[in-house]
Amino acid sequence: MKKIINKPEDVVEEMLHGLALANPAVKHSKGLGVISRKEKSEKVGVVSGGGSGHEPAHAGYVGKGMLDAAVAGNVFSSPDPERIREGIDQANGGKGVLLVIKNYSGDYMNFTMAADLAEMDDIEVDYVMVKDDVAVEDSTYSTGRRGIAGTVFVHKIAGAKAEAGASLPEVKAAAEKAIKYLRSMGMSMSACTIPAVGKPGFTLNENEIEVGMGIHGEPGISKEEMKESGEIAKILLDKILDDYEASGIEMKGTEVALMVNGLGATPLMELYILNGDVQAYLEEKGIKVYRTFVGNYMTALEMAGCSLTLMRLDDELKELLDAPSEAPAFRI
Amino acid sequence: MGFQLTSKDYMEYIKLVYKKIHENREYITDLDAATGDGDHWANIDSGFGKLNEISESLECLSLFEQFKQIGKTMMSVIGGSSGVLYGSAYLAAAKVLKGKEAIGNEELCGVLTAMLDAIMSRGNAQPGWKTMIDSLHPAVECYKACLAENVPEEEILTRVKQAALDGAENTRGMEAVRGRATYQADKGVGHLDPGAVTMSYQIEILMDYIRSKS
């Protein structure tokens, strides 16, 4: 294992320490894995989080117009309720707090437990569950679909709605709408190594890819031979578009937000090439791309690969997507 | 009037649970080694051990505050899924006990029902999945049925205890749906679930303790 770290057991706290040094607008609750905005305002607080190893998720999305606090667990494992409780406290401006939870059993248990604890202390808390990954129905770590890169759009929509002064039910409704129109699908080309484990969790052969693999290396749909970018774009988009159709959501003639996400080790050069192929295929399907995001938004350590996310837009979602954000990993 | 458990009584019960769990280290660890991570005994023992240690400070609280504190303690000391599940159970039960000074027959059924509901919803799990639910669920069902049929208290204690013990024993024939045992070819069939066994200890001791008091 070659990684720029000190001790494997200190990676999360040391990462957050360094992150806070690089962003004067946030502070780090030491020992509790929480990054939060220094500036407090009287509005609904938006909190997200989960296991570490997905950087810039989730702490990179803390900033005016997006998250008020992000809670980090150990690499690929949920933070415990006490940490999440700290995140809720830091985000609470007296108008209630919305938790954005990715659909994994551990995250669900710990975040809802923290919500119960906060409610016992008279803080109004509600939550939404993101399950945008169309690859598999149930998985190693989830009952139902997994939450992946599309979560970043949910952060943006909920954060913008909260910043506009909306109530907790209104912020939740906007987040639920984003979730309803959100679909993602990914593929991996190489494994990643959890620092505390020291060796890769699985192996893929030299010329092999796994379609639909999760962001913790959990199994996807199929192992296939490496393909050209244009073909990868079609495989991933077809699965996403089939799923919209199965849910009765018409896509032809509509506008979408598009995210071409890298999993950590894939160069931007490749993501831009893929973006070109994705947009050509969407045009063929009669779908207009309103706004494009290309980069590493939801990673899996140094895994190579990508995911595509579409969010079908209406006027409200467009306005919320375009609203300013000062989060370092998602500046608008 | 039937039994009335105060917050002081409840801590006496907790201490008895700790003793029983602490004495069964080898048995529980062996059960867990067959199907799980092997850490169930250590986790649950540390949780009840901590409650045993701080029992004096908990016994003077109201039942609502006491159950809340037990929940928070279990959550932070046991950690992981078990900690959250036990924590959820006690927080849910605390809500049932708000404003109450003692736990009588009806309240106890309400407490156990709230615990079961909390564990099932938080863990997103069902009876028959070879978990602690498989001891608690039959105990709660039995309790509800007894109350509906106006079964005498003494008899309720006997039946609920037996339902919990039978429930744990029945996990032997079940296939695991969650956790490490699901990766085994036999899905844990033939082995008792250690979480169901430690749950049955708690219900058994609670029923015996109430009997000894009345």
Automatic annotation (TrEMBL), chain A:
- PANTHER family the record matches: TRIOKINASE/FMN CYCLASE, TRIOKINASE_FMN CYCLASE
> What is a single Pfam family found in this protein's UniProt entry?
Dak1
Q: Which GO terms describe its molecular function?
A: ATP binding; glycerone kinase activity; phosphoenolpyruvate-glycerone phosphotransferase activity
Q: Does the keyword Hydrolase apply?
A: no
Uppermost EC category: transferase
Q: Quote the protein name from its UniProt record.
A: Dihydroxyacetone kinase subunit DhaK
Tell me where on the tree of life, at the top rank, the source sits: Bacteria
What cellular-component terms does GO give this entry? cytosol
Where is each DhaK domain found? 7-330
- Keywords, alphabetical: ATP-binding, Kinase, Nucleotide-binding, Transferase
Q: What is its EC number?
A: 2.7.1.121
Listed GO biological process terms: glycerol catabolic process
Among its keywords, does the record have Nucleotide-binding? Answer: yes
UniProt xrefs under InterPro entries: DhaK_1 (IPR012736), DhaK_dom (IPR004006), Dihydroxyacetone_Kinase (IPR050861)
From TrEMBL, chain B:
Question: Which residue intervals define the domain DhaL in the entry?
Answer: 8-208
Alphabetical UniProt keywords: Glycerol metabolism, Kinase, Transferase
Enzyme kind, highest EC tier = transferase
Q: Name one GO molecular function term.
A: glycerone kinase activity
| EC annotation from Swiss-Prot or TrEMBL | 2.7.1.121
Which pathway does the database say it acts in? Answer: Polyol metabolism; glycerol degradation
| One cellular-component annotation, GO | cytosol
Q: Which GO terms describe its biological process?
A: glycerol catabolic process
Q: Which SUPFAM superfamilies match?
A: DhaL-like
Taxonomically, the superkingdom here is: Bacteria
**Catalyses which reaction(s):** dihydroxyacetone + phosphoenolpyruvate = dihydroxyacetone phosphate + pyruvate
Oligomeric state and partners? Answer: Homodimer. The dihydroxyacetone kinase complex is composed of a homodimer of DhaM, a homodimer of DhaK and the subunit DhaL.
Protein role:
ADP-binding subunit of the dihydroxyacetone kinase, which is responsible for the phosphoenolpyruvate (PEP)-dependent phosphorylation of dihydroxyacetone. DhaL-ADP is converted to DhaL-ATP via a phosphoryl group transfer from DhaM and transmits it to dihydroxyacetone binds to DhaK.
| The name this protein goes by in its record | phosphoenolpyruvate--glycerone phosphotransferase
Native organism: Lientehia hominis
